[in-house]
Amino acid sequence: xxxxxxxxxxxxxxxxxxxxxxxxxxxxxxxxxxxxxxxxxxxxxxxxxxxxxxxxxxxxxxxxxxxxxxxxxxxxxxxxxxxxxxxxxxxxxxxxxxxxxxxxxxxxxxxxxxxxxxxxxxxxxxxxxxxxxxxxxxxxxxxxxxxxxxxxxxxxxxxxxxxxxxxxxxxxxxxxxxxxxxxxxxxxxxxxxxxxxxxxxxxxxxxxxxxxxxxxxxxxxxxxxxxxxxxxxxxxxxxxxxxxxxxxxxxxxxxxxxxxxxxxxxxxxxxxxxxxxxxxxxxxxxxxxxxxxxxxxxxxxxxxxxxxxxxxxxxxxxxxxxxxxxxxxxxxxxxxxxxxxxxxxxxxxxxxxxxxxxxxxxxxxxxxxxxxxxxxxxxxxxxxxxxxxxxxxxxxxxxxxxxxxxxxxxxxxxxxxxxxxxxxxxxxxxxxxxxxxxxxxxxxxxxxxxxxxxxxxxxxxxxxxxxxxxxxxxxxxx
Length: 478
Known about the structure:
With 478 residues, this protein is α/β, with parallel strands linked by helices. It is 46% helix and 19% strand.
């Protein structure tokens, strides 16, 4: 590979200002940024994305951010109408719910698709202006699935690759999308498509076979090859990891240790159960609360001896459905605490705010049980972060079988169906009763796996697949 051009919906930082005050640049500390930035600097790369605000782009703070980053930063501007119809509309009221098997939440407004295409074309125009023939272009996630189509129409012949961070649905769900054929053909304009899990990969290939009869799928060592319209497209699964060492080191810091100890001291005699989620209906928060309530109803030994710390991070508050969803969570928390609390014990401690990094790591260290129970998730890195921070090699992970992380962690996590309230309640009791030896054995296995399959190995495996010759080891079509 030569120069790397990374394209995502958002740049690796956000711009904020209060009133007419100065612009404040807030950098992302996510694992993807940490893994990709050294590659961008090494290859004199470029990051293209939206700054997260509608309207004109302030140039001075962006120029400062680009200099500090060590690579070029190219912003894409969106008007308020484009933000509403591209981001809140097609991306998050069509693709997001549909790809999470929640089609009843979809709003198939035709105008959303037109704006989605238009914004993807603007991204493509920006990429075309800044790329060269030998560049390696890596596009990320569901907001930008039409970009390759728009780039090919502009004659761009550079290597185009794509990674989907969210799940890909089975055919009977995907078939409900009005633009199903157009979206699949747009995705097949990339040279390499990456998915989180083998299940997502199987779902995608099933959709290609059912929707595009002219496409032929071949098996390849470690990858699949799709031949369509005289093109060859490689497709594979690449489960994303975390920066294990960074989380482990942070959890071991004195500041985090002190905060974790304070948190434990606030609930003497109780095992702490942790839920950390962005406000979203795919995360299964109401179902989790109902399961916790069911456990308290049926198992007296849990009363007064477990506390659920549920932290919800505000997200997409501009969408009315999310307001309604938050109200539902509020009512469930009120019901549980109203029915079961005593003078000395409150069963659910609920906060609607973002935790800073040290607070998050302290919660991971302090809580003996983690409840990670999304209705569906591409990967869910909270599960992996929790394990990385259990530096005492203890703790129990209760994990939804519909989270992508379950494919890797199924031997050692306690897998549950988040829709089965009684099963989740029973599993909370099992985790509560689990011996220290069992907890340690399971956690050691998960930590070893997560350490080995970290975010850096994920980047390397994707680049390795991209550098492979498209027709290597092609076998029989099926």
